[in-house]
Each structure stands twice: as C-alpha cells, then as structure tokens.
Amino acid sequence: MTETHFRTMQVLKWVALLLALLAAIGSLDTQTRVEAAALCSGKDRASLLSFKAAILRDTTGTLLSWTGRDCCSDWEGVTCQPSTGRVSSLILQARAEDDESFMKGILSPSLANLQSLEVLVVSGMKRIGGPIPDNLSRLSGLSQLVLEFNSLDGTVPPGLGHLASLQTLSLNGNRLTGQIPPSLGNLRSLLQLNLARNSLSGQIPATLLSSMQRMQFLDLSFNLFSGSVPEFSGGPFGNLTNVDFSNNQFSGQIPNSILSLSSISSLSLGDNRLSGGIPDRISSLKSLSQLQLSGNRLSGQIPASISMLQNLWYLNLSRNELSGPLPMSLGQGIPSLSTIDLSHNNLSLGSVPEWIRNRELYDVRLAGCSLSGRLPIFTKPDSLATVDLSENSLTDGASSFFANLASLSEVRLRNNQLNFDVSKIPLPYNLRILDLRSNRLVGQLSAILNNRTGSSLEIIDVSSNQLSGRIPEISRGATSLKVLNIAGNRISGKIPSSISNLGKLQRLDVSRNRISGTIPPSLGGLANLQWLDVSLNAISGRIPASFLGLAHLQHANFRANRLCGQIPQGRPFNIFRPVAYAHNLCLCGKPLPPCPRNHR
C-alpha cells in the first residue's frame, strides 16, 4: 500500500467518523427538541382534567385520548407552546348536523387557569350547558373564543370585554338570554362578532359599534333584539363586509349610517319590523353582492338606484308592502344578478317581466305577484335551478314550461289555476322539489311518483287536485323522498307495502282520497316518519302494532275510516287526542275507552 493511498484511507475514516458524530449530535438535538416540545405544564394538565371531569358524556371520543402525562402531543385538540409546554390552543369540534356526536356537561371554570391560552374553541357539542364562566376574562392573551352550537345559558359575561387581544368572539347557537353587555364595545381588536341564534334581547348598546372600526363580520341574527337598527357611528368601518341583523324585532327605518358602509358585501335585515321605503342611497353600497330585506313592512316603490349595484347577485325583497311598477332601469342594470325574490308584496305584475325571462338566472321567486295567463318561457334556462310562481292565477303552458327547464331542481306552482294532465308533462330528471298543490291537475299519480322520480325527488306535494289511479309500487332504489303529500285527490286502491322502501320519508299524507284495504305493517319500518295522515278514506282492519316502532312520530290522524281493534298502547299513540281516531268502526284503548276482550 503506497503512502498516498494510506493517507487517503485515513482521511476517509476521519470523514466517516465526523459524519457519524454529526449524525449522532443531530439525532440527540432532534430528540432533545422533541422532548422539550413534549413538556406539559402540570398546572395546565390539571386544568384540562378538571374540564374533562365536568363532561359527563362524550360521544365524539375526543376525550378518550386525554390520558397520560403528555398533554401536549397525545391529547386530541390540545396544542402547546414548544418552548414552555403551556397550552396555547384548545379546539374541540363536532359536526353540528350530526345528532349522535356531542358532549354533555358544563364548561369548567378551570379553563381560566390556562394562562397562555390564545385559542379556545368548543363547537357543535350540543349538550354542553350551564353558563359561560365569568373568569374566562382572565385569559388576557386570548385571540379567539368560539363557543358555538352548544346549550350554554345565562347571560353574556361582561368580563369578556376585558379581553383586549380578542379578534373573534362567536357564541352562536346557544340559549343565552339578557342584553349585550356594553363592555363588549371595549374590544377594539375584534374582527368577528357572532351572537346569532340565541334569545338575547333589548336594544343594542350604542357603545358596541362605535369603537369597532376593525370589524369585518357582524352577526346578531335570530335573537329578540328590539328598538332601532344600531347606528354605525364613529366609522369609517372600512373593513366591514358582512352585517346580519335578520330575524329580530328591530323597528323604524333603515338607518342612513348603514348606507355609508362602503366595503359591505352582504347586508341582511330580513324578518324584522322595519318600515318606510328602501333608501335611494342604497346605490352607494358599491361592493354589495347580497341584499336581504324580506319579511318587513317596507313600502313604496323599489328604487331605480338598485340597478346601479354592479356586484349584486342576490336580491330578496319578499314579504313586504312594496308596490309597482318595477323600475325600467332594472332591465339594463344589476348585471351580476343571479337570484331574485319579489314574492308577496303589493306588486301587480300581470306577467313575468321580460328582463327576468331573458336573463341567465339561477333562482326566480315571484309568488303572490298577481301573475296570470300562461306559465313563462325563460330564454336562458340552462342555469335556472329554482322557480317559485305560487299563489298567482296562472292557467296553462305547463308542457312547454317544463320541457324548457331541464336543469330545474325546485319548482313551486301551488295555488294557481293550472289545468293539465300530469302524465303529459316531462319532469326534469334532477328535480328535487315538486309543489303543485291546489291546482286542477288530472292524470295518474304514477306519472309523478315512480321509480325514476323516487330516486331524485325529495318533496312531492300534489295535494288538492284531481289525480286518480293507485299509489304505485316503490322499488328499493327510491330512497330520496322525504315528503309525500297526495291528500285531497281521487286516489284509490291500497297503500302498497313497498312504500316502506322510502327509508327517508318524514311526512306521509294520503288523507281525503278513496283508499281502501288495510294499513300495511311494513310502514312501521319508516324510522324517520314524523307525520302520518290517512284520514277520510275507506281503510279497514287494525292500526298495526309495528307502528310503536315509529320513534320520531309527532302527528298521526286515522279519523273517518273503517278501522277496528285496539289502538297501539304506547307513546305517542295512546296520548294523541281522541279526535285522531274518531268516526271509525270500533277502535278502542287509550285515548279512547277500553277495549272489550274480543277486540284486543
């Protein structure tokens, strides 16, 4: 081996040793950092365990992971500061629409001991009740407090106004009462305030909005607030994009200060008691994309200035006292318009305006607008998903109306004077809601209720017409239907057992027809059924005992048939009012008199 080769080998060995040493140091450093990040404050762990102890039941499974000493890396929903091991974030969320996912208990005051907490979210737990702990005001570093969709009661703690760093405060969807504490006006850093869906009342404190210039999102909807719509004084509120005061008891006129919110994109004042006219200055809201003023007492004409709102795509002025004529400028303006609802005002349109028929719209609602004659033809129907022309005096044109609307998802034509054979109408393939109640329709029910429509339709209401034929057999694939109302027609024959294949059915009304035979016991398998009406037919036999399995049933009516035997003796059948069983042959048992032995 040459000296050069020997030196080369030595260098390579030293390099290998150096790399191994560096790797070991790196591994040790990584392990040290992991261990440091995993440190968990004993005080914070104890506070979290106190919170867990106040939760009597947890179907989310989240708290199952809260075992052992390492709350920073092993406990679901908990995040810590890597350098200190103090809890900085607690996020516990469940899906609000999932009834089986919840926590039952209270919010433990021990949460206030998490002194480094920046984010506290307990959302969608449904059964966490009791008051919001007053001592949460000690969490001086808190930037987000979200306690949505629980069952919290009591008042909004005034001490929350001391959380100077708070940027998001959401108490949406609880059972809170009382007034908004004026101290919330001290939250100058607040970007989002959501107190919707509670039972809060009284007037909005004048101080609430005067100092919240950074606010971006404000939702006070679905409460019991009264008085005037709060003024936006001390502006300019240049960041405010969403304001929702709907579903309260606000009165008076739309305040001028709202018309100075230059950045607002969504304004909802619907379902209050507002009066006066829609201000001409509405056109100053250049960024407005959604305007919801329905369900008030607004009067006068719709201002032509609305046509100047270039970004407006949603316009709902329904259920007011607005009068015509409609401004001509609407035909050339509002270029972004996609959804329009002018229903139930004092408008006498006669026919659907040409500018509506010729637009590419998504949702058109003109119920109760004194329309007459033929159903309209929309010239750009490809995007149209919803049409509501109910409670007018329309008479014909159904065939061309439906043939032109292949993309239709929802159609409501109830309470007109339409006269056509349903078997000759091409229903759109993806139709979800069909409401033809109270017209003069004829033809076979099977043209509307069949295996094809049963797989897409969720609501069928053809009650109070002149339809005939039988209730058709239902295949197992017809799984979408939730509401079937065929009351007040000329339907005959039996109720087929296969109707139990409608597994999502919540409401079934076959009353006021000519139906005979017996009630199939298979209907007891409709686990979601809430409403059942078979009254005023010629149905015989017994009320099946299997109906005791209808756990969600809230209303049932068996009146005026030929039923006999014992009423199922269990809730709710034995506590319904006796009138629900009146005028039958020989029904007995609670709530009616006891059965003779031979009728049990």
Automatic annotation (TrEMBL):
Annotated signal peptide: 1-27
Domain Leucine-rich repeat-containing N-terminal plant-type: residue ranges: 43-80
Main location: membrane
Alphabetical list of Gene3D superfamilies matching this protein: Ribonuclease Inhibitor (3.80.10.10)
Localization of this protein: Membrane
A cellular component term, taken from the record's GO annotations: membrane
Membrane topology: Single-pass type I membrane protein
UniProt keyword annotations, A-Z: Glycoprotein, Leucine-rich repeat, Membrane, Repeat, Signal, Transmembrane, Transmembrane helix
Domain of life: Eukaryota
Cited Pfam families: LRR_1 (PF00560), LRR_8 (PF13855), LRRNT_2 (PF08263)
UniProt family annotation: Belongs to the RLP family.
Protein name, as recorded: Leucine-rich repeat-containing N-terminal plant-type domain-containing protein
Taxonomic source organism: Trapa incisa
